[in-house]
Write a structure and sequence with these properties.
heterodimer, A: mainly alpha, 2 domains, flat, B: alpha/beta, Rossmann fold, 8 helices, 25% strand, disordered C terminus, transmembrane (chain A), MetI-like (chain A), membrane (chain A), transmembrane helix (chain A), transport (chain A)
Chain lengths: 259, 259
C-alpha cells in the first residue's frame, strides 16, 4: 500500500473536497447558461437563483420551515411505528410471514398515486403530508432494524446465556445495541426519502411548503423561483442527512471502526 | 468438582440424528486442569457446553459441585474461542459485565471494580481500562475476556479453544499466564483444544476423544513439573514423548497403539 495522501487522510480534506465538487458543479451550470445563452425561463443562472432567494428570503424560509416540520414529524412517526414493528417481526416467524408481503405491497405502491387519496381522507392540513413522509420512510427503517436485530453474533448470545442473563437483559444490553449501526443506516436512507415524501405531499392540496412553491412557480413559468425552492430542498436534505451522521458519530463511536 | 456419568448427546440434524457424544464418564477433581483434545467434530465443544449448562444432555447426568447442572451457574465461567467482547463497552465495563448481569452478587460493586483492576493488571492491561475493544490487538482482547471470566472468582472455568485464534507468541504468553493464574486461584479448569502441544503443556490430565460419535479414547496423566512453557522448557523430552503418544491416539490406529 502507498501511504495515505493528504486527500484521503486529513479531516480538512473531508470537508474541503465536497465543497470543491459542489463549486465545480455550480460553475459548470453557470458556464452552460452563458456559453449556450440559455433563456432564464428554461434554465436560470445560479446568480439569478440567489437573487431570487434574496428578493423574498423570509417567505421562502418560512415555506422551508413548513416542509422541514412535515419531514421531521413524518420521519419520527416512521421510527415510532417502524422500529417496534421490526422488533415484533424479528421475534416471531409467523408474524414475519404474515406481515412482510403486506409491507412489500404497501411499499411498492407509487406514492404519487395515493397522494390525492390522502387529501380525500385527511383534508388539506398537514396530516396527508406527514403520512406521505411516513409511507416513504417506513420501509427502509423496518428492513434495516429487522436486519440489525438478526445480526447479533452467536458467541455474544451464548455469552449472555452463560452469564444467566434474562431475556430483557439480552435484548437491551446486547441485541438492540448491536443493531444500532444498521438501524442508523436505515435512518439515513429514510431521511432522504422523507424530504421527497414531503414534496409529493405538498404537490397535492397544499397551500404552503416548498413543494407548493414549486407547483405554483411551474404554473406561472417562474423557473427561477422553482430553482430556488429546489436548492432549498437539497440544502435541507443535506443538513438532515449529515445531522444524522453527526448523531451517529456521537452515539455510536464504537461503530466507526468497522467501516 | 465435575462429574459426568454415562453422558450422551444426540442432535436432530437435517439429515437425521447425529450422535455427538456417547458414554462419557469423566470425573474432574477440584483444582484440576483437564484438557479435552480431539479432531474437529468430535463433540469436545458440546461436552463443554453440557458442563456449562448451556445444553441439556440427551442421556446421563452432569454434576458440578455435587449438584445436577440445570442451567448456567454463577460459579462456572465460560471462555470462548473469540473474545466475545461487547464492542461499545470499555475494557473495564466488559470485565464487569457478569457482575452487572447477575445483580445478586455476593460482594459490593466497588469490591468487584477493585478486583477488575487487579485482574487487568495481572494480565498486563493496566492503563487500558477505558479503551474500546477495537482499539486492542487480538491477544489483548482475549486477555480482557480472560479477566471477565475470572471476575466472579469462579470455581470452574470452561475454556473453548480460547487461544486458537492467536499468533504463536501471544499464545505462549497467555498459556503461561493461565497456568500462573490457575496456580494462584486453585480454579478447576476444563480446556478444549485441538493443539496437542497446548494440551500437554497445560494439563494435569488430557482426555482424548474419538470423532463421531465422541467417545473417551484415553485419559493421559501428565506429571511434568510446572510451570511449563510452550517455548523453551526443561522437559522437552517428556513433552515430546507424551505428544507423540497423543498423536498416535488421535490418528486412530486402534488398539495396538494402546498400552
Amino acid at each position: 500500500m502507498t501511504k495515505r495522501s493528504w486527500l484521503t487522510g486529513s479531516p480538512a480534506a473531508a470537508v474541503i473536497l465536497p465543497i470543491i465538487g459542489l463549486a465545480a458543479a455550480i460553475a459548470l451550470w453557470w458556464l452552460a447558461t452563458v456559453v449556450f445563452s440559455i433563456q432564464p425561463y428554461l434554465l436560470p443562472t445560479p446568480w439569478d437563483v440567489v437573487v431570487k432567494f434574496f428578493d423574498q428570503p423570509g417567505a421562502l424560509l418560512s415555506e422551508t420551515g413548513t416542509s422541514l416540520l412535515e419531514t421531521i414529524e413524518g420521519f419520527l412517526l416512521a421510527i415510532v411505528i417502524g422500529v417496534p414493528i421490526a422488533l415484533l417481526i424479528v421475534r416471531s416467524v409467523v408474524l414475519e410471514r404474515l406481515v412482510y408481503p403486506l409491507l412489500l405491497m404497501v411499499n411498492s405502491i407509487p406514492k404519487v398515486a395515493i397522494a390525492p387519496l390522502l387529501v380525500v381522507w385527511m383534508g388539506f392540513g398537514q396530516w396527508p403530508k406527514i403520512v406521505m413522509v411516513l409511507l416513504m420512510c417506513f420501509f427502509p427503517i423496518v428492513i434495516s432494524t429487522a436486519q440489525g436485530m438478526k445480526s447479533t453474533p452467536t458467541e455474544l448470545v451464548e455469552l449472555m446465556r452463560s452469564l444467566n442473563a434474562t431475556r430483557a437483559q439480552e435484548f437491551f444490553k446486547l441485541r438492540l445495541r448491536y443493531a444500532m449501526p444498521q438501524i442508523f443506516t436505515g435512518f439515513k436512507v429514510a431521511i432522504s426519502l422523507a424530504v421527497i415524501g414531503a414534496v409529493i405531499g405538498e404537490f397535492v392540496g397544499a397551500t404552503k411548503g416548498l413543494g407548493y412553491v414549486i407547483q405554483q412557480s411551474g404554473a406561472s413559468a417562474d423557473t427561477t423561483l422553482a430553482f430556488a425552492a429546489i436548492m432549498l430542498l437539497s440544502v435541507m436534505s443535506i443538513v438532515l442527512f449529515y445531522g444524522l451522521v453527526l448523531l451517529e458519530h456521537l452515539l455510536l463511536p464504537w461503530a466507526q471502526e468497522k467501516r | 468438582m465435575i462429574r459426568l456419568d454415562g453422558v450422551g448427546q444426540v442432535f436432530d440434524g437435517r439429515e437425521g440424528r447425529v450422535t455427538a457424544l456417547e458414554k462419557i464418564d469423566l470425573h474432574v477433581r477440584g483444582g484440576e486442569f483437564v484438557t479435552l483434545i480431539g479432531r474437529s467434530g468430535c463433540g469436545k465443544s458440546t461436552l463443554l457446553r453440557l458442563i456449562a449448562g448451556l445444553l441439556p444432555p440427551t442421556s446421563g447426568s452432569v454434576q458440578v459441585a455435587e449438584e445436577p447442572v440445570t442451567g448456567p451457574r454463577r460459579d462456572v465461567s465460560f471462555m470462548f474461542q473469540r473474545p466475545a467482547l461487547l464492542p461499545w463497552r470499555s475494557v473495564l465495563s466488559n470485565v464487569m459485565l457478569p457482575v452487572e448481569i447477575d445483580k445478586g452478587s455476593d460482594r459490593g460493586k466497588a469490591a468487584y471494580r477493585d478486583r477488575a483492576h487487579q485482574l487487568l493488571e495481572l494480565v498486563g492491561l493496566q492503563g487500558f481500562e477505558r479503551r474500546l475493544p477495537h482499539e486492542l490487538s487480538g491477544g489483548m482482547q482475549q486477555r480482557v475476556s480472560l479477566c471477565r471470566s475470572l471476575i466472579r472468582d469462579p470455581q470452574v472455568m470452561l475454556m473453548d479453544e480460547p487461544f486458537s485464534a492467536l499468533d504463536a507468541l501471544t499464545r505462549t504468553e497467555l498459556s503461561e499466564e493461565l497456568q500462573r493464574i490457575k496456580m494462584e486461584l486453585a480454579t478447576t479448569i476444563v480446556f478444549v483444544t485441538h493443539s496437542i502441544e497446548e494440551a500437554v503443556v497445560l494439563a494435569d490430565r488430557v482426555v482424548v476423544l474419538t470423532p463421531r460419535p465422541g467417545r473417551m479414547r484415553e485419559v493421559v496423566d501428565i506429571d511434568i513439573p510446572r510451570p511449563r512453557s510452550l517455548a523453551q522448557n526443561a522437559y522437552v523430552t517428556e513433552v515430546a514423548k507424551i505428544s507423540a503418544r497423543l498423536h498416535a491416539l488421535l490418528s486412530e490406529k486402534d488398539s495396538e497403539d494402546r498400552r
